[in-house]
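User: Sorry, what's this?
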Amino acid sequence: MAMRTAISSRILSRAALPGARSMSSWWRSVEPAPKDPILGVTEAFLADPSPDKVNVGVGAYRDDNGKPVVLECVREAERRIAGNLKMEYLPMGGSVNMVQETLKLAYGENSEFIKDKRIAAVQSLSGTGACRLFADFQKRFRPDSQIYIPVPTWANHHNIWRDAQVPQRSYHYYLPETRGLDFAALMDDVKNAPDGSFFLLHACAHNPTGVDPTEVQWREISYQFKVKGHFAFFDMAYQGFASGDPERDAKSIRIFLNDGHFIGISQSYAKNMGLYGQRVGCLSVLCEDEKQAVAVKSQLQQLARRMYSNPPLHGALIVSTILGDPDLKKLWLKEVKVMADRIIGMRTALRESLEKRGSTLSWRHITDQIGMFCYSGLTPEQVDRLTNEYHIYMTRNGRISMAGVTTGNVGYLANAIHEVTKSA
C-alpha cells in the first residue's frame, strides 16, 4: 500500500512539473472540419425517409434506374487479370503500359511527342492526385508563380493549390445572365495576367457549369496564351464522357499542342471507365526534348515518393488491359458513348418537361451545356425549397448532376423546379 502511494505521488508530482501536459490535451484546439458541400448533400439524402426523394448532387454516373454501373469492358478486364495479379509494388511512376495508353488518348494515337519521348508522365491517384502532384511541382520549381483558376471551378481545385502553398488568382469564366461563357472577360483576364502565368483550364465538360468554349474560342484562347507566354494546365476528368467521343473531347488540348504550347495534363478514369474507387489517373508534362522529360519525370516521381511512394496496381491493370486490347477498347468506346448519350438525353428531357409546364424562363442552357453537370441558375433559396418541400437534393449553387436524372424522376424534378421558379 505504501509503495502504491509513493508511485501515485511521483505521477502527480510529474504532472505538476512546468511544461507537463495531460495526454488528452494535445489536440484540444482541433475543431471539426466543415462538411464537404457535395458529400453533405449525399448524407442528407440518405437520411431522408421520403419515398419521393431525388439526389441530383452525386458526382458519379447512374443508369436510368438510378443504380451504379460497372462497364462490361471493366468486368472482362477483371476476368482476364484474375489470378494473374502479383502484389509487388509498381514503380514510383506507375504502370508503364497504362501511362503510355493514357497519353495516346490525350496527345493522339500517333503523337510525335510520344514517339520523341518528350512527355514526362506518371501514374497518379486519379485526377485529384495528378493536380496535387503538379501543384507541388509548380511550387518547387516555379516558387514565385501563382495559378489562375476559373470562377467557378471544382471546389477542390482551390484546396489543392492552397495546400501546395501556390498563390491563387481568379479569372472570369461563367456569365450568370446568359448561363454561358463570359468569353470577353475571360480574354481580358488572360491578356492582363503577367506574362508567363499559370492557368488552370478544364479540357471539356467544365465542372460545375457544363459550359465549354467553342472550337473557335479555344483557338483564340490558345493564340493569346502564346502571345503572353502563359502555361496551360488542363484538368481532363471527362474525356469521352462529355460528348461520347474521346477525340472530340480532347480538341482543346490538340489545339494547344498544334500551336506549339508546352502544357500539363491531368487525366482520370473515374468517370469515363467508372473506376471511381480505383483512383486511376495520369499526370503528364510536355517538355522541350527527351532529356528534359527524363529530368521532369524524375522530380515528379520524387514528389510522389514523399506522398504515397507508389500508386495502386489493380486499377492500372484494368485500364491497360482495356486500352491495350482492340476489342476491349472498342467495347469501352461503345459503352462510354452510351453513358454520354444518356446524359445528353436527360438534358433534352428536362428542358422539354420544363417548357411543357409553361415556364416563362429560358431553359436553353440545359441543352447548351455539356457533361455530367448542369449549372441550372437556381438560387440557394430555391435549392433550399426544392429540398425542404420536394425532397430534391443538390448543392446550393444550383448544380444539377444529370446522372441523377432518370426517365422516372425527370417529370417530378421539372415540376418542382417550375414551382420554385415561378416568381423568378
